[in-house]
Amino acid sequence: MLSKLNVIWIDAVTCYGCTHSFLNYKEISSLFEKVNFEYHPLFLSNDLEIKQCDLLIVEGALKNNYPRLGYSLNELISKLFFKAKKVLALGTCAVYGGMFGEGLMYNKEQKGHYYKCRDKIINLPGCPPHPDWIAFVLDMISENKKIALDDLNRPKDIFAYTSHMGCTRNEYFEWKIDAENFGTKEGCLFYFQGCQGPFTHSSCNKVLWNEVSSKPRAGTPCFGCTEPNFPKNDLFKTDTFMGIPANIPLGVSKRAYLTLSGIAKSLNNERLSCKLINYKCGDNNEDK
């Protein structure tokens, strides 16, 4: 039987959203059978010791001269970083810096303080990350399995997708039929509401939140919270130039996008257009 994974979880500049997400993991009791938290600021655990561990988890951004447990934050992270076998940057603040400071490996889109040590870092962005993502990483490390990472050190099993994949509004996106307001059941949220799903690496529409929903399913655009440029200016706006989106969905050339968009608009999918019109008029029944 494998020994438990010894973990030290440090709170940097954080709102504790990642911790609260983790505590919502549906099988958390079985996870505690595999993981021993030597320290966590909110769990019942021992006082922090500067010691070796299998995994150091950093939740939150780094910030100079920020006091933490008798050290400056950056000094504390440095002391623990080099004693850990692996380091998990948990959440967008720890990965990219978010709004408050800088991340372990990145400072927004620039190289961060620990970039040269990237071989021992796993990045798990999200504001917050899905609890299943956190459990996946802990399971893989506890079972001594290799985690395939992308070019930003994010697990490919989670971030090889875009948030757009699995979105229930994809057909509206393809036919360029847009919702004009938040909270609607029908219509695409990309053009008018600033949805970042086509540019955002995540499995949010494949691994649903609370096993039932996601932002687009609830009528709210994807904010792109797993990407280095989060939060972007004008969060609910799609930048356009002469009516054309400034950014084109990942993997599609601008020429191909414009060609397909023109064809879709000229053909006019009456079934989807009627669904959107009926929804606006208060008739939420599916078309027969």
Automatic annotation (TrEMBL):
Keywords per UniProt: 3Fe-4S, 4Fe-4S, Iron, Iron-sulfur, Metal-binding, Oxidoreductase, Signal, Ubiquinone
Residue sites binding [4Fe-4S] cluster 2 per the record: 164, 167, 188, 195
A single GO cellular-component term on record: membrane
Main location: other
Family: Belongs to the [NiFe]/[NiFeSe] hydrogenase small subunit family.
Domain NADH:ubiquinone oxidoreductase-like 20kDa subunit: 15-139
GO molecular function, one term: metal ion binding
UniProt-recorded name of the protein: NADH ubiquinone oxidoreductase, 20 kDa subunit
Signal sequence, renumbered to the chain: none
Coiled-coil portions: none
GO biological process: anaerobic respiration
Subunit comment: Heterodimer of a large and a small subunit.
UniProt cross-references to PANTHER family, sorted A to Z: HYDROGENASE SMALL SUBUNIT (PTHR30013:SF5), NIFE / NIFESE HYDROGENASE SMALL SUBUNIT FAMILY MEMBER (PTHR30013)
Residue sites binding [4Fe-4S] cluster 1 per the record: 15, 18, 93, 127
Record flagged with keyword Phosphoprotein: no
Top-level taxon: Bacteria
One Pfam family hit: Oxidored_q6
Residue stretches making up the Cytochrome-c3 hydrogenase C-terminal domain: 159-233
Location of the protein in the cell: Cell envelope
Cofactor(s) listed: [4Fe-4S] cluster
